[in-house]
Specification:
The protein is built from 10 helices and 7 strands. The protein is α/β, with parallel strands linked by helices. The protein folds into 2 domains: 141 residues, Rossmann fold; 57 residues, Winged helix-like DNA-binding domain superfamily/Winged helix DNA-binding domain (Arc Repressor Mutant, subunit A). A 5-stranded parallel sheet has the order 2-1-3-6-7, with helices on both faces. It has a two-stranded antiparallel sheet with strand order 4-5. Helix 4 crosses helix 6, helix 7 packs across helix 10 and helix 8 packs across helix 9. The radius of gyration is 18 Å and the shape is globular. The chain starts with 8 loop residues before the first strand and ends with a helix.
Length: 211
């Protein structure tokens, strides 16, 4: 546990009571690093840019948008960042969507304190928290994968990039259009190819045509 004690957390939720509650649980676990707070997505982006955040505990919805809009970019810019979604949304409806976006775990706000602590420790020590509910969702998804549209595995941003490739745009053009670095677009392209199990833009175009 010693090697994991000095960790910087960012707690992102538009309700201060939720952030304070999670902070208390983190302190109960014995961590000694900083615990920062953010109440909007814009503050999340600013805080991650200004600080070396190890673990982000984030709600799904904010007054200024849905965290799905920023999670893929955060994982691209900060690949070592561990993200635990702590949300009031139904796990059965949203967990896989967030996992596909790159988060390390999904937890509902109705969870017991011990479950929250367990999720935090799993994300920190093992890099992943998968509840029994999400395990069932993943198993069901694998069993039915042959009938699913593979493009459903992609996030909204990844689909946007895919469409730009289909329109004949290159990495630099896409980067300029989306305000990203060129290597960030390349990383996203690699992730898309891995999710879809393809190796070329030709195969990508074929998938788009099929689905």
């Amino acid at each position: 546990m010693t090697e994991y004690k000095n960790i910087t957390f960012l707690l992102a939720d538009d309700h201060s009571l939720i952030r304070q509650g999670v902070e208390i649980l983190i302190e109960d676990l014995g961590f000694e690093g900083d615990i920062l707070h953010a109440s909007t997505l814009q503050k999340v982006l600013a805080c991650t840019a200004e600080n070396n955040i190890d673990v982000l505990v984030i709600d799904a919805a904010f007054p200024d948008g849905n965290s799905l809009e920023i999670i893929p970019d955060l994982k691209t810019k900060y690949p070592e960042l561990k993200i635990l979604v702590f949300s009031g949304l139904e796990e059965s409806d949203y967990a896989l969507r967030f996992l596909n976006a790159g988060v390390n775990g999904f937890l509902t706000k109705v969870s017991e304190e011990e479950d929250i602590k367990n999720a935090l420790m799993k994300v920190i020590v093992e890099g992943r928290y998968i509840s029994s509910v999400t395990q069932g969702l993943l198993l069901n998804s694998l069993q039915n994968s042959s009938h699913q549209n593979p493009l459903e595995k992609l996030t909204k941003r990844e689909l946007e990039v895919v469409q730009m490739y289909a329109d004949g745009m290159g990495n630099l053009e896409i980067a300029n259009a989306l305000g990203l670095k060129q290597n960030s677009v390349s990383t996203m392209k690699k992730r898309v190819f891995e999710k879809l199990g393809i190796d070329s833009l030709v195969e990508l175009a074929a998938l788009l045509k099929k689905y």
